[in-house]
Amino acid sequence: MVDIATRVWTHKWKIDPIVRSLIDTDFYKLLMCQSVFRNRPDTQVQFSLINRTTSVPLADLIDEGELREQLDHVRSLSLSRGESTWLRGNTFYGKRQMFRPDFMEWFENLRLPAYHLERIGDQYELTFEGTWPEVMLWEIPALSILMELRGRALLHSMKKFEIQVLYARAMTKLWEKIEVLQKVDNLRIADFGTRRRHSHLWQDWAVQAMCEGLGEKFVGTSNCLIAKRHDLEAIGTNAHELPMVYAALAEDDAELAQAPYQVLADWHEEHDGNLRIILPDTYGTEGFLAKAPDWLAGWTGIRIDSGDPAGAAEIAIKWWKDRGEDPSQKLVIFSDGLDVEKIAELQAQFQDRVRVSFGWGTLLTNDFRGLTPQDQLAPFSLVCKAVAANGRPTVKLSDNPNKAMGPADQVERYKRVFGVGVQERSEVLV
Amino acid sequence: MVDIATRVWTHKWKIDPIVRSLIDTDFYKLLMCQSVFRNRPDTQVQFSLINRTTSVPLADLIDEGELREQLDHVRSLSLSRGESTWLRGNTFYGKRQMFRPDFMEWFENLRLPAYHLERIGDQYELTFEGTWPEVMLWEIPALSILMELRGRALLHSMKKFEIQVLYARAMTKLWEKIEVLQKVDNLRIADFGTRRRHSHLWQDWAVQAMCEGLGEKFVGTSNCLIAKRHDLEAIGTNAHELPMVYAALAEDDAELAQAPYQVLADWHEEHDGNLRIILPDTYGTEGFLAKAPDWLAGWTGIRIDSGDPAGAAEIAIKWWKDRGEDPSQKLVIFSDGLDVEKIAELQAQFQDRVRVSFGWGTLLTNDFRGLTPQDQLAPFSLVCKAVAANGRPTVKLSDNPNKAMGPADQVERYKRVFGVGVQERSEVLV
């Protein structure tokens, strides 16, 4: 039997919306948003889309009208009652009422602010301006939309069975990775792939496949909507935008040097347990740890998001030892450019020394490499970053200079203030 | 929206029927049935299921109750009005009213006769007895049911995503074959895979994938129901059961020697054009052609279904030349144990010398080899053959002694009568 109503309804849609919910976003965005809403609500920021893979000509591939329709659709979204109930009533990281009533009330009334879109050559300039708590929520939907529209552009010219076989191949590829991970003892891994996923439906499939294939080894997803739908743990802590904006707001070099610690001091007041995870690489991991206050060594763990992951883990282990902490009680979360071989290798290398966990991103939710003739579905490096705060440019140094950003003079100033010397470059795949 | 009615209806089913239509069968069965209905309608025959792959313990894998339910379901089927209309009104091989009114009237009132099922060790003995036109129609449903139940037995213990990935792998595997065939110039290929298909739905998928992937290179399917559903050509001519039963009915050696030609003389009266295809191997191709009457050399082509296909094609080409025929006008249909490499090879070898066509069977509709851990879904060699006619055993010699059947003394007699010497054995995969 054909469900006539469904069919008619489907054909009534003006567009096939890519982002259909304000919680189709990373959990850490909401945690950070609450923190910003509390501590720096009036900061004026600018976020900007940056395509690091300039060989992908987004403006040639994606129709501007379609892109505007998708972005406009996101602006029409507001939190549904069920989503609000889930955020207010659910337990996150073992804690009830993670989101405070004043934040929830604000969020329930939120619509995302305007965007600015312009074609520059074969790329789009896409920027968002306004108060920090509002603008920051554009990051994930903007990335998801660009990624998925780029995929659709290719899929549009494919025939029915060709498309089905493409997904069959992608499923097979992902399942073979899951089969590798099944053999990794003591694995704890979460989905961190929302921002650069192939599509929402594909991420949803990937998460469900991880659930079935890995059982308890799969500890949750960063995507709130998918976590809600499948009753999974929502996973995530905080990201570079906090130290980047705090740093940009610093009035002098002394305040700048303290900015990354101020972020974590604010965080310390709100969160405990597994949410106390240091992200040390914004202005160089070594300097950050060396100058860190002692109370930070008491935090639960560290997230390693750039540079050589094993090297960074060794630095953290040594730092904990130097500060009189027991590394075997500490959590190390690897989240940069992971695929299964690297995951298995890092797990084997560190599982007897620290508690290990993985946030698996793009190569979980968007590994379509090698599945189309000219590899036009391979993921690429797209980010959406805070580029200015209260009129001042932001800076990121990272442990990998290929991930650095900011005006050259400010980069030099930050390097001096944070004591960052020569850094090793490594390729940014995604 | 959930279609509530569909869901409730689905859950009301007592079983999930494997064969749901009397035309979910090979087209040549119906052509042969009409011929038998006209020429030998009262012949009493016994058909029997033979599992040549004794390492597959069918009675251990398949529940007898489930098997009976499926067989009983087939006995409940009758030709629907639409099916009857299609058979009466459609054009087959360019001819209208291929099926005569008296045959159609008989077929419209047909229910399949009783079966006899017994467990013998780890195998089932499944036999059908009655008049030839009725009993012969059991062959394809019986094979399809056993094949699909054996697959279901394994699928039953698999989890949801595991099953989805299994089919994803099977789709990928088949599509890669189609991609190979896309590069074979002048290819003409049909689906002959009903009898040993993985399942009805899978055969339907395979046929549609061939349509999209190969376009005009894909000339049709032997499955009437699938041909009807997708408006494709129904393909097929005749099979070994005709000479086997005619031979068993022969009163003496002289009549036996003539039996295979009598089959084709009866066929000659009814059919012309591309339906005049010789199947020469029942009692040895060389002897059959050497002693064939001249009018047979005027037939359109030959189907090569056992032995070395290139060798058999060479024999046919030489035979046509000897009889003053132009081989380049003749059709050679390869249909034995084909896979894409062999297809490409035979096409290259013969396309400039004869008209080449392929009937691709088991490795089109059931290539699940290598897709499960112990390969429990690999196809195996199951046949359902006429074993007796009017109380006399049937005999098949074939060009491959591994495909021979019949009592030893009768096999010796047939070898003598048909002048068959030493034959080369080749493995029967499917």
TrEMBL record, chains A, B:
<keyword id="KW-0328">Glycosyltransferase</keyword>
<protein>
    <recommendedName>
        <fullName>Nicotinate phosphoribosyltransferase</fullName>
        <ecNumber>6.3.4.21</ecNumber>
    </recommendedName>
</protein>
<comment type="pathway">
    <text>Cofactor biosynthesis; NAD(+) biosynthesis; nicotinate D-ribonucleotide from nicotinate: step 1/1.</text>
</comment>
<dbReference type="InterPro" id="IPR040727">
    <property type="entry name" value="NAPRTase_N"/>
</dbReference>
<keyword id="KW-0808">Transferase</keyword>
<feature type="modified residue" description="Phosphohistidine; by autocatalysis">
    <location>
        <position position="240"/>
    </location>
</feature>
<dbReference type="InterPro" id="IPR006406">
    <property type="entry name" value="Nic_PRibTrfase"/>
</dbReference>
<dbReference type="InterPro" id="IPR041525">
    <property type="entry name" value="N/Namide_PRibTrfase"/>
</dbReference>
<comment type="similarity">
    <text>Belongs to the NAPRTase family.</text>
</comment>
<keyword id="KW-0436">Ligase</keyword>
<dbReference type="Pfam" id="PF17767">
    <property type="entry name" value="NAPRTase_N"/>
</dbReference>
<feature type="domain" description="Nicotinate phosphoribosyltransferase N-terminal">
    <location>
        <begin position="23"/>
        <end position="146"/>
    </location>
</feature>
<dbReference type="InterPro" id="IPR036068">
    <property type="entry name" value="Nicotinate_pribotase-like_C"/>
</dbReference>
<dbReference type="InterPro" id="IPR007229">
    <property type="entry name" value="Nic_PRibTrfase-Fam"/>
</dbReference>
<keyword id="KW-0597">Phosphoprotein</keyword>
<dbReference type="GO" id="GO:0016757">
    <property type="term" value="F:glycosyltransferase activity"/>
</dbReference>
<comment type="function">
    <text>Catalyzes the synthesis of beta-nicotinate D-ribonucleotide from nicotinate and 5-phospho-D-ribose 1-phosphate at the expense of ATP.</text>
</comment>
<dbReference type="Pfam" id="PF04095">
    <property type="entry name" value="NAPRTase"/>
</dbReference>
<feature type="domain" description="Nicotinate/nicotinamide phosphoribosyltransferase">
    <location>
        <begin position="188"/>
        <end position="421"/>
    </location>
</feature>
<keyword id="KW-0662">Pyridine nucleotide biosynthesis</keyword>
<dbReference type="GO" id="GO:0004516">
    <property type="term" value="F:nicotinate phosphoribosyltransferase activity"/>
</dbReference>
